[in-house]
Design goal:
239 residues, Dihydrodipicolinate Reductase, domain 2, 28% helix
């Protein structure tokens, strides 16, 4: 994803690729810019796009905050608790921080449609499917979707809460909404949201088949992150 974003920035007439940071790819050259192994490679840039492992993202964000660089964050694994930790660490800004669970415009709309549907159904479940190299589960998109469903609806209502004969078979729970994570080679990024009422089921599904789908959202965030003080979550405000 980092290589894809860097190439897109190089191809944009109004943006300039000012630096690259990845301790695992030092010396590689993208768009004529060498990859550095120290965060100071980003010093002097206006915006940094952060796609990395969830284990190090908060440490990286602390570096960007200290360098005075706006941050656009596409790293997964941002629970409510982690977002609040970033808010506490980051403060009001500037610089600003925009955390985006999914840069796909279609995925943003899928989450919004799920939020609109939630009050009208008794219960919902989220099934997210990703490639087998994804470092975490569930996805940030699934966590955000579950949170929005829970925030828009009453408590999940089922006739029976099934006893698990195999531990974990009912998925994990985020704000009372079950999430099921699938990891398989051949997948990229996909999500289904299932809503149930007596006598009917509504399914909302989004499929990403190429990482190019993320680029318009990333560039939108890069161009506008300076407008949103402090820490903002999601592309909704930009759309």
């Amino acid at each position: 994803m980092g290589r894809t974003v860097a190439s897109a920035i190089v191809s944009s007439e109004d943006l300039l690729l000012g630096g690259l940071f990845d301790p695992g790819a030092v010396g590689e050259v993208i768009g004529g810019v060498p990859v550095a192994g120290a965060p100071e490679a980003i010093a002097g840039c206006e915006v940094v796009v952060e796609f990395t492992n969830p284990d190090v993202v908060v440490e990286n964000l602390a570096s960007w905050r200290s360098l005075g660089v706006h941050a656009v964050v596409g790293t997964s694994g941002f629970t409510t608790e982690r977002i609040e930790a970033v808010r506490s660490m980051w403060g009001d800004g500037p610089p600003n921080c925009l955390i985006v669970p999914n840069f796909s415009i279609g995925a943003v709309l899928m989450m919004r449609f799920a939020e609109l549907a939630a009050p009208h159904f008794a219960a919902a479940e989220v099934i997210e499917l990703h490639h087998d190299r994804k470092a975490d589960a569930p996805s940030g998109t699934a966590v955000a979707t579950a949170g929005r469903i829970a925030g828009a609806s009453a408590e999940q209502r089922r006739a029976v809460e099934s006893t698990e004969l195999v531990a974990g078979v009912r998925g994990g729970s985020v704000d009372g909404v079950s999430i099921h994570s699938v990891r398989l080679p051949g997948l990229l990024a996909h999500q289904e949201v299932l809503f149930g009422n007596e006598g009917e089921v509504l399914e909302i599904r989004h499929d990403t088949t190429d990482r190019a789908a993320f680029i318009p959202g990333v560039l939108l965030a890069v161009r506008h992150v300076a407008r949103f003080p402090g820490v903002t979550v999601g592309l909704d405000a930009l759309l």
